[in-house]
Amino acid sequence: MTASPGLGTPLTAAPELLRSVFRQHAAGVAVITAAGDGPVGFTATSLSSVAAEPPLVSFGVGTASSSWPVVAEAEHIGVHLLGEEQRELAATFARSGADRFGPSTRWRVGPEGVPLLDGVVAWLVCRVVARIPAGDHRIVIAEVESGDPSGGGRPLVYHQGRFTALRD
Q: Largest alpha-carbon pair distance within the chain?
């Protein structure tokens, strides 16, 4: 019996295995925002469309994240799909301790007081309907209330541990 390409020796489940496998999985890049005493936000590659009726999205957030205490209490969150030219914005919102809403970030207060980033491919304002424990994360499910898909441009993608663009 010959081995099929890509079928090596199985590894034992561990955080390193999960990270290694998901480096092979290209994912769209989003920034999630919420309002607390001040605006908070983080880069997410776990954004998913959950249902069309009602319109629901989900994303994961680490409970050790500096944004989690605000997201844990927020009634509404913002979801921003980033374009391929927004690598630095994605990196800023991914970097621990960064001034995410500093002078280099263009944003405004949107519906329900949610911080909205300018110049993104698309954005949504969603009402949080569930926060589900999942290991050291929470899966947040939110219902879409408003948004704008008209930003245009090509999406930013996360693959092999870096932000990149789609190739033609």
A: 62
Task: Provide the pairing of β-strand 156-159 with 27-28.
Answer: antiparallel
Phi, psi (rounded to 5 degrees) for 120: -85, 165
Residue the block writes with tokens 């939110």:
142
Q: Give the C-alpha separation, 76 to 142, whole Å.
A: 8
Query: Does a structural domain hold residue 18?
Result: no
Domain count, the chain: 1
Give tens-digit pLDDT for 23-61: 878 899 999 999 999 999 999 999 999 999 999 999 999
As a whole number, mean pLDDT of residues 150-158 equals 93
pLDDT at 53: 97
Report if residue 126 sits inside a domain: yes
